[in-house]
């Protein structure tokens, strides 16, 4: 459904011209599981998004329709409690506004998405960021984009039980077209790096694997990092997060941490460094060197952080054997998408190869998406 069709539908239902907002999903070039460790990440918004059509309404009801599921939900400010799937996220956002003392009234909202759910493209962060933006505009709350990102993060934590970092919502809110961001997750600041890949493309391969335990395993990884930091703090009080620790500083803690915690911290410390190095390569358009780091990240995710799965490993290995410039599993883990940095002449051959062999191996059809980097959450004027 395009913007005109959505606007017309809103008009027919509510006899009003709506505010229309676009909220994109994201990719992350490198810097995985580093956001909640105060490290660096390199995300960008993509050309897949939520579209919201919305208007304020005097009745103090939030009346929201998810067109993709054909589901209508209505709730009021005193009915905010975790319950139903996508409604959780929206209630969480409403609560974030209330907690900040913002006066918001009722709304009528229709929304729709073309972000494949469960593919690691942060559809929930886009939903929360976009809905927050809608409320902020309609009720002139004057919250900054960073406030909206923090509200979206709280919503995922408190209403959906996922203790996620800030990367996804920050990327959805702050991205610019044809750029990636080097985001510093400790200071909540970023630098834009132009992304002009002459001859190269970013290709996503959706493994179609959705792991039911992904969010509990995610929280568990985060906990292991926090325990690692506590152990280091016993002897180095100044350390606040794994961002403050180099690989050399970490090595002496191997025995006291035990194998599991050490492996997790070791991966994170190296990944933070790798992301800084990768930013240098990107600025100089050194694609082979950048791609090599993507493979190193995947190795770390698979062996030390243990958040990969046979399907992602298989695609990344096939990419390596086919001499594709870079490939790695992207996002929280346990499936979702593999991101490939691929030269244009190789793309067709590689897609055909994966299509044929992946099905033979896993009895699943992968999806392929060529990605364009897009603008962050924005109001659409028409
Ligand atoms: C998920 C989380 C992010 C980040 C990534 C891993 O996408 O939502 O905050 O931690 O996993 O890098």
Bound molecules: alpha-D-galactopyranose
**Secondary-structure class:** alpha+beta
The backbone outline, from C-alpha atoms, is globular
The portion of residues forming beta strands comes to 15-25%
Can you walk through the features of this model?
The chain has a domain at 3-195 and 374-379: 2-Layer Sandwich (Ribosomal Protein S5, domain 2). It has a six-stranded mixed β-sheet, with helices on both faces. 44% of the residues lie in helices and 22% in strands. The longest helix is centred in the C-terminal third of the chain and has 25 residues, at 259-283. Helix 3 crosses helix 4, helix 3 crosses helix 5 and helix 9 (259-283) runs antiparallel to helix 10 (287-304). With 382 residues, the chain is α+β, with helices and mostly antiparallel strands. The protein has helices at residues 3-14, 85-99, 123-138, 145-160, 167-174, 214-233, 247-250, 254-257, 259-283, 287-304, 310-321, 344-362; strands spanning 19-28, 40-41, 43-57, 61-66, 71-76, 106-113, 179-184, 189-194, 200-206, 326-329, 337-343, 367-370, 378-379. It is globular, with a radius of gyration of 21 Å. Alpha-D-galactopyranose (GLA) binds at residues 32-33, 35-36, 122, 164-165, 167-168, 331-332.
